[in-house]
Every structure is written in C-alpha cells, then in structure tokens.
C-alpha cells in the first residue's frame, strides 16, 4: 500500500514538470483538477486500484479547495490600492490551514464556507504577525519573519490591515456568524496579553496556562467550528466544544514539540518557548515533580539562553519524571472529549483531524 502511494505521488510530482505542456489543458477540458494532468490520470489508472485512486483524487480536489481559499485571502488583500501593502503581503503565506480544514469538514465546500475560511485565514495571519513582533521572532516556519525583513512597524501595520479587511468581509456573512468570529478575536487578544504578562515570571499553575491557551489559540478554532455549524444549522455549542478541545490539545502538542523536535524540523531552536519566558505544560508538570532544591534550578533557567549542559539536564529531567508523556496524555484527554457532544453521524474527518493533530511531528 505504501509503495503504491509513493508511486502515485511520484506521478503527481512528474505532472508538475509537465504542467506547462498541452496535457494540462486536456485535463482541464475533461473536468479533472489541475494537479492531475491527462498523463497522471492515465498512469494512475494503471498502477492504482480504484479505492486508493478515489482517495488520491479526493486529496487533490481538497488541495484545490485550499488553494481557492488562499486565492480568496489574496483577493481580499488585493482590494487595497496600495503597492506597499501588496509588497508586504507577498512575503507571508498561509500555514497548516487547520481552521479552514475544520470549516470544510463541518460545513462543506459552499461559497459561504469558503469565504469564511478566507476570513479566518486573514485573522490567523494577522495574529501571527503581531505574535512574531511580541516574541521578537526572527523566523516563521523556517524563513525570515516579516518583522525581521521589514521591521516591527510594518509587521504590526500589515497585521492591522489584515484584521480590518477580515472584519469588512465578515459583514457579508450572517450576523450570528460574524459575532461568533469577532468575539473570538477579542478572546485571542485577551490571551495574547495574558501570555505577555505570564512570561515575566515562571508560572507553575496549569489552570492559568490552560486559560491562556483557551483564549490565545483555541478560541479562533472553536469559533471556526461554531460558525461552521451555524452556517448549516447544526448544534453550535457541540461544535464549539469540539473546536475548543481540538485547540487546547493542538497547543499542548505544539508546546511538547518545541522541546522534543530539532531546529531543522521546527525552524527555530528547541526549547525556544522557555527561553522566551513561556512556561508551557511540560515545564509546569516537571516543576511539580521535582524535589524542592531542583525546582529553584528550573525557575532560574526560565527566560534565559540555555547552554547544552542546561538543556541536557532538562531533557534528562523530562525523561526521569515523565513530564512529556504526562503532557501528551492530557492532550489526548482533550482530544477524546472533543467529539463527546456531537450527534451520531458527524463527519468522520473530525476524528481524523484529532488523530492527525495528536500524532503530528511538526
């Protein structure tokens, strides 16, 4: 099975090389998504069995929808008759698009849901621009951040531009949907402030940590789920619960990966969060497991540049006391709770999203 998947994606990769040929035009004329040319379609019929072929076709169609969402974001920003805005915007891109994937899984691929996706992506991009300025981050997904390239002022102003354009287009959606999304941005901003103040000293409180990530990370994911449910007349609170749990679990795993993954994978040094003053769940769990004299040692490392010896002590302590495993288990508990309020018959992709989020490595 894996060999067939690899062969299929090799075919798709070869298609990209041939994308400028007239084969692409023939594919489009026959109603196939652009990523699959006439050549790819013929080859896939020979090497891929029907069930897997259908899955790959669905994946390609889904990628086409995600591309439409990104184009929608660019179109909204393109409404500004300002070359400076366009220059700044050209340096950033959509990331994992978790929120858009969630909206599509709940509300389908209607024009209204795709527009909601583009608005949510604008908000997410704006929040990341401000986040990088606050964190003084010089990298975003392994490449230079906008503030590194153009300075803090331009990064902040582009974030404001994206927020304002998102609000403008929110007015075209149903009032209930617009209020839901707008409220999540209020919570997101509140979470940012909590995060900044909490970074001033070591935070040993799991309750404070969960409240902060609920607001800063999970609120926009929860509102994406709730707004999607509103669009199709489903139980808004049940889907809000799903999104909130997904968001909390997502952030916990993100915080674990900051410790366990390499700089090559993350695009930033490992344990970077702790250096920036963020006391994430693994550190909180470790603090409460350490003997008193070592707790003080942990607190003194907070918000400091860590040398290799200090990192080694932290890694060994995480392993000794099981703080990483314990944090992952808490993420899994939130993940298991996510679908608990949904009615039977919900889209199985929601289970797949939860599973993929827990198992991800970046």
From TrEMBL:
This is Octaprenyl-diphosphate synthase. It comes from the Bacteria. One of its GO terms (biological process) is isoprenoid biosynthetic process. It comes from Helicobacter brantae. The keyword Nucleus does not apply. It holds the Pfam family polyprenyl_synt. InterPro entries: Isoprenoid_synthase_dom_sf (IPR008949), Polyprenyl_synt (IPR000092), Polyprenyl_synt_CS (IPR033749). One of its GO terms (molecular function) is metal ion binding. The keyword Magnesium applies. Its cofactor is Mg(2+). Keywords: Magnesium, Metal-binding, Transferase. Belongs to the FPP/GGPP synthase family.
